[in-house]
């Protein structure tokens, strides 16, 4: 199946079969490269890919990979002056990865981290003037949104607890360790399923008690006392810390259930509307590694520092700002919980 056939006209007005085949090879290589990243690197890669849609240069993480992947089948290719080709191949490689990689039990693989981060970054961008590039951006947004939704559901399925396996004790094992080793092997699948199910039960209990309490530890007071914008963002930031998987629609609705409808504000206007409450919200974000990646975390970075790196003119109401806070904070929480924050 040709991955580049749909997007090759961004590069060439009339692409040849050889052109498309060569870039298909590059996409396959880059898909494999992206799948080998750590989850933290996948978040950084998403920031780089998203920024490159706006004309920024690819960073040191992706630029060498893209140049090598393309030049393997196109010996004359050099990255300098041809950055758009690299961006397109990387974006299509990311598209393939998030669409075709199977979902594992933890719900936080490189493909998951890339999908959530690209969804966050690309949806906080103005539309592109180039219609084909805009089509690619929208295709990538939709694929990433779909994966996050699927991961949120699939990673929360309870496991069927298997029967205890047969105890088999090899004769050549040392006598003292035979029974223990055989017992661990026989019971390991049962214990694993019970622990993972317990983890999901704990998530639901912690989250539901927090929702019912309507009290914010982040703000040290009832959420109902706060204005809609503050309540929405505080709820999104704090709700994410209670989740063990990426948030699905039900979690988003629960987080935002007490947030009233408001007028739509830009990020700059939002910070002004928050006023002194911005400092309260920002305390929990100070020193976060995510603040250094405002392309993926525009809201978190702005609330933490009061500085706005994005020029995006998008305006959102309080509920949508709360949903964005939940998404951005969930990426941070998943990375901290599953991979560990550096």
- Overall SS class: mainly alpha
Helix proportion: 55-70%
Query: Which term fits the overall shape?
Result: flat
Q: Whole-Å distance between the termini?
A: 39 Å
The ordered string of helix (H) and strand (E) elements is HHHHHHHEEHHHHHH
Name the poorly predicted regions. none
The counted number of beta strands is 2
Strand content range: under 5%
Q: How would you describe this structure to a colleague?
A:
The protein has 342 residues and is mostly helical. The protein folds into two domains: 8-154, no CATH class; 214-339, no CATH class. It contains 13 helices and two strands, in the order αααααααββαααααα. A hairpin with a 4-residue loop joins strand 1 and strand 2. The radius of gyration is 23 Å and the shape is flat. The protein starts with 16 loop residues before the first helix and ends with a helix.
Short description:
By secondary structure, this protein is an all-alpha fold. The protein has helices at residues 17-35, 39-53, 63-71, 83-100, 110-122, 131-154, 175-213, 228-241, 249-255, 267-274, 277-283, 298-305, 318-339, and strands at residues 215-216, 221-222.
Question: What's the structural blueprint in terms of helices and strands?
Answer:
Layout: H1 17-35, H2 39-53, H3 63-71, H4 83-100, H5 110-122, H6 131-154, H7 175-213, E1 215-216, E2 221-222, H8 228-241, H9 249-255, H10 267-274, H11 277-283, H12 298-305, H13 318-339
Antiparallel strand pairs: 1-2
Helix pairs in contact: 1-3, 1-4, 2-5, 3-4, 4-6, 5-6, 5-13, 8-13, 11-12
């Amino acid at each position: 199946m040709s991955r580049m056939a749909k997007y090759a006209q961004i590069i060439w007005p009339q692409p040849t079969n050889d052109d498309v085949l060569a870039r298909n090879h590059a996409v396959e290589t880059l898909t494999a490269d992206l799948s080998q990243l750590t989850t933290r690197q996948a978040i950084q890669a998403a920031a780089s890919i998203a920024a490159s849609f706006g004309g920024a240069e690819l960073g040191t993480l992706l630029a060498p990979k893209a140049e090598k992947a393309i030049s393997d089948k196109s010996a004359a290719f050099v990255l300098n002056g041809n950055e758009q080709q690299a961006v397109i191949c990387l974006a299509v490689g990311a598209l393939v990865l998030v669409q075709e990689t199977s979902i594992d039990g933890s719900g936080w693989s490189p493909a998951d981290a890339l999908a959530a981060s690209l969804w966050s970054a690309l949806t906080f961008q103005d539309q592109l003037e180039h219609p084909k590039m805009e089509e690619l951006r929208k295709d990538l947004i939709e694929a990433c949104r779909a994966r996050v939704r699927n991961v949120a559901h699939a990673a929360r399925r309870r496991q069927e607890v298997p029967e205890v396996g047969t105890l088999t004790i090899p004769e050549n094992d040392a006598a003292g360790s035979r029974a223990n080793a055989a017992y661990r092997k026989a019971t390991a699948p049962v214990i694993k399923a019970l622990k993972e199910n317990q983890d999901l039960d704990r998530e639901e209990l912690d989250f539901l008690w927090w929702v019912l309490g309507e009290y914010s530890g982040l703000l040290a007071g009832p959420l109902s006392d706060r204005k809609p914008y503050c309540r929405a963002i505080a709820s999104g930031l704090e709700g994410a810390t209670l989740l063990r998987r990426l948030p699905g629609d039900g979690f988003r609705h629960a987080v935002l259930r007490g947030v009233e409808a408001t007028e739509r504000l830009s990020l700059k206007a939002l910070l002004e509307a928050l006023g002194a409450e911005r400092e309260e919200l920002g305390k929990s974000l100070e020193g976060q590694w995510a603040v250094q990646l405002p392309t993926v975390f525009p809201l978190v970075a702005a609330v933490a520092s009061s500085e706005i790196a994005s020029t995006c003119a998008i305006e959102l109401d309080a509920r949508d700002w709360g949903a964005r806070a939940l998404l951005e904070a969930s990426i941070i929480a998943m990375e901290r919980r599953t991979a560990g924050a550096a």
